[in-house]
Amino acid sequence: MTSRTPHLNQPPHPVAREAWDVHRLPSAEGKTFLVTGGNAGIGYFVAEQLAGTGATVVLGSRDRTKAAAAAAGIRSRVPDARVRHVPLDLADLASLPATVEALALDRLDAVVHNAGVALDDPPRRETADGHELMFGTNHLGHFALTRWLAPLLAAAPAARVVTVGSFAAKSERLDLNDLQSRADDYRPKRTYGRSKLAQMSFGFDLDRRLRALGSTVRSLVAHPGGALDSLTPSRPPVHVRTSGERLRGLPAGLLIQGKDAGAWPVVRAVLDPRAEGGQLWGPRVFGLRGLPRAEPVAGQMADAALAARLWEASCELTGTDPEAGFR
Question: 221 forms bridges with which residues in the sheet?
Answer without folding.
Answer: 163, 280
